Automatic annotation (TrEMBL):
Sequence intervals crossing the membrane: 91-118, 130-153, 165-183, 306-329, 349-366, 378-401, 407-429
Protein known as: Membrane protein involved in the export of O-antigen and teichoic acid
Pfam families: Polysacc_synt
Topology of this chain in the membrane: Multi-pass membrane protein
Keyword Hydrolase: no
Presence of the UniProt keyword Membrane in the record: yes
Superkingdom as given in the UniProt entry: Bacteria
Organism from which the protein derives: Sphingomonas gellani
Length: 444
């Protein structure tokens, strides 16, 4: 381990992950407060309806969202490295245009489909107006440009601060709604304002940082010009969009399927278990967010980025095993304390889902390595196969085993994704000497 930390790049990865971790830790604690207030301030059915409304908007956003932050890291970091500000403006302008386009498509599609799908998802007619209003958040939910700008400018400290904004407002608003007996409308308004404020805060931080670096015009939308000048740009953004749309919708769509098959109360229980699971897996997510920008600065033909992936994966896997032990020991009393005894069924689901945590965390470097190697199409195939397998298993296992079946399907989905990512990653490593060292490398 001492030898590992002698590597400056590895230290940078850990340092940036620590910045993000500090914000996520605060956010996770505040998020628990917000969920506890919502769970105790409403019936299980109303709590589940709130979860379904949020999941629908988030799911639509995830389906149409371009991963513009990855595009900015891959194309913008080398441009900054050679001090080519015009090329960097092309990258950020193209990313802004993609965010605007996907946000408009998501908003129109989400509003149009919701009246047709609401009943199937378990959203009652009386709650439909609230759900329609919540869909107006889709454009801000789909925007990833400010995150990419802050990452490529190495302002992970700013991202850490922003990560606490939404859960803080949710927690404060949740306490007010609970104490004031504001009921379902109070919690919907709280979650709406919190999501909007968190997204706008990220944009303000990006604008301020660009002004500080004297980069005017970096957020002016540009489509045609950058699309021609940035080699492989369209191929990259379309491929990563499809891959991440499939996988990022996993959580929200899972909530919707559970709600459709088992009712809003079960969707609420699944949300509680998934929230604890997501909080437990955050260390791997944080390492991934700091890992990807760093390896994009390294020569993929060397062993260095691949060795960093092994070290980072081992550390994340060890964290996952420790978290698994903590969940087994303390998960049940914590859920009972925070949400009340009526939600203890979520612990059985959480304990089951946490079995997949070690694999999920240890395998986080695979996707970044594939993007570094220009193998985004392989990542897309892996994501799609795993998501399709998970969706089929989710329907079948819920039908056979009820709510616990959703947890079983989740484990199978994580294992499918890890194996599907591992195979092309090993193939890319064997052929690493043929990988061009450029952010605009040829698409595999």
């Amino acid at each position: 381990m001492k030898h590992w930390f002698a590597d400056g790049v590895f230290r940078t990865i850990v340092r940036n992950a620590s910045f993000l971790g500090s914000g996520k830790l605060v956010g996770a604690l505040l998020g628990l407060v917000a969920l506890a207030c919502a769970g105790r301030g409403m019936s299980a059915a109303l709590f589940g309806t709130l979860v379904l409304i949020h999941s629908y908007a988030n799911g639509v956003g995830g389906l149409v969202k371009f991963q513009t932050w990855q595009f900015i890291v891959r194309y913008g970091a080398p441009a900054l490295g050679r001090d080519d500000r015009d090329a960097f403006r092309d990258v950020t302008g193209f990313a802004v245009a993609l965010d605007l386009a996907s946000g408009c498509v998501g908003l129109i599609g989400g509003l149009a489909l919701l009246p047709l799908l609401a009943g199937w998802f378990g959203i009652g007619r009386a709650d439909l107006p609230w759900a329609l209003v919540y869909c107006t958040l889709i454009p801000t939910m789909t925007a990833a440009t400010p995150t990419g700008i802050l990452r490529v400018l190495d302002r992970f400290d700013q991202i850490a601060v922003q990560q606490a904004v939404t859960p803080l407002i949710r927690a404060v608003g949740g306490v007010i709604s609970f104490a004031g007996h504001l009921g379902f409308p109070g919690f919907v308004v709280t979650w709406y304002v919190a999501d909007l404020a968190g997204d706008l805060c990220l944009w303000l931080m990006a604008v301020r940082e660009l002004r500080r670096r004297d980069m005017p015009g970096a957020l002016v939308p540009r489509f045609a010009g950058p699309g021609r000048r940035l080699g492989g740009a369209w191929n990259f953004v379309v491929t990563t969009n499809i891959a991440h749309s499939v996988w990022s919708a996993w959580g929200p769509v899972s909530n919707l399927i559970v709600g459709a098959m088992l009712g809003p109360a079960s969707a609420g229980l699944f949300k509680i278990a998934a929230t604890f699971f997501d909080s437990a897996s955050k260390p791997a997510d944080l390492l991934s967010r700091s890992f990807y920008p760093e390896i994009m600065r390294l020569d993929p033909a060397s062993r260095h980025p691949w060795l960093l992936a092994v070290r980072s994966g081992l550390i994340a896997g060890a964290m996952g095993f420790l978290i698994l032990l903590l969940v087994v020991i303390g998960g049940e009393p914590l859920i009972g304390l925070v949400f009340g005894k009526r939600y203890l069924e979520a612990y059985d689901l959480l304990r089951l889902m946490t079995v997949s945590l070690v694999v999920s965390m240890a395998s986080f470097p695979f996707e970044s390595l594939l993007y570094m190697a220009g193998r985004q199409r392989a990542a897309l195939v892996a994501e799609a196969l795993a998501a399709l397998g998970y969706a089929g298993l989710l329907f079948a296992m819920i039908h056979l085993f009820g709510l616990l079946g959703a947890g079983m399907a989740y484990i199978a989905g994580v294992l499918l994704k890890a194996v599907a990512m591992l195979i092309p990653t090993l193939a890319a490593y064997r052929k690493r000497e043929a990988i061009p060292w450029s952010a605009q490398q040829a698409v595999a």
